[in-house]
Structure formats: C-alpha cells, structure tokens
C-alpha cells in the first residue's frame, strides 16, 4: 500500500511568500522611502516591472507554479497608492515594439533585457509623483558566471542613464523620493549611481 501525500497549496503559498519577504535585503532607506505610504503617487521606471522576472537558470528555473505575481502586479493590487498611468502607458507602448527576450531555451537566457531610453516626458512623471521606483533585473545561473560586460556585473548605459537621471531629480527635490530595486541573485556594480 502506497502512502498518499497531499500538499496544502494555500499554506505552501504563504510559506513561499514569507521566505521571499525574508530574503529581501534593504541596503539603505533614506528619508524612510519604504514602505510606500497610503495616498502616495508612484512612478514606476524600468521594463523589469512589466514582466514577471525570476532570477535563476539552474534547477530554480525549472519550477512550475500555478501563478506568479510580479512587482507591477502587486503594486496595481495596492489600492492605497496611485500609479502614474501615463508612465505605465509609455512603457507599455515601447514594450510592444521591444518584447521581452525569452532567450533560446533553458540556460540560454540573456543576463539582462533591453531598457527604454528615458525621455523628458518620462522625467516629468518623476517630477509629478511622490515616489519613483527604478527597477533593474539580472539573470543568474549555475553554468554561467557574472562577467564585466554591461548587462551583467555592470549596468548598461541605458540602465545607468535612467537610474542617474531619476535619482538626480529626486535628490534635488526635498520632498520627492526614489527607490532603486534590484531583482537579482548576483552582485552588481552601481558605479556613479552611488
């Protein structure tokens, strides 16, 4: 007789969420930018917010799930904040012309994704919101080490320009805040951003 094992998916999901939350690292929290506060308006920069992004190519990359929740999905569910819809539309239009690169199968996924050039119209969104989130992601894998190429250990020119320009604007304003979110399991050099 074989034993039957069952998995309580609700308990499993709660435990997975707890593990993910405990795995986050907050390096610095100037002006107590986080957590986001009720009533704040938020501008979301970076294409990685628009696509659920898991950072792992090895056995972790083969995990099948019933559902996933990306950063933007979670932010949209949070009714206490207002997302800048104009900026979201700008990104959505650009992403239609620049789709997410899935790579060429398991283990052959790009380390980073093409990022959108920041325009003055986009910076106006940073100026008109309380908080700007800048989101950058990297893939990692068992069979590939980080290298010094842009898009791996180093930021691409476009990522650096986006981050510097948004953070610079927010630093000029004593009220506006910016948060840099790195979705990655590897180290990265932030260069002139810090």
Provide a concise account of the structure shown.
Helices cover 30% and strands 11% of the residues.
The proportion of residues in beta strands is 5-15%
Net shape = globular
Output the strand order for the largest sheet: 2-1-3-4
- The overall average pLDDT, rounded, is 83
How would you sum up this structure, described in words?
This protein is α/β, with parallel strands linked by helices and 194 residues long. The protein is 30% helix and 11% strand. The chain has a four-stranded parallel beta sheet, sandwiched between helices. The chain is globular, with a radius of gyration of 18 Å. The model has no long low-confidence stretch (mean pLDDT 83).
Topology:
Layout: H1 9-23, E1 41-45, H2 71-77, E2 82-83, H3 85-97, H4 120-127, E3 131-137, H5 157-172, E4 177-183
Parallel strand pairs: 1-2, 1-3, 3-4
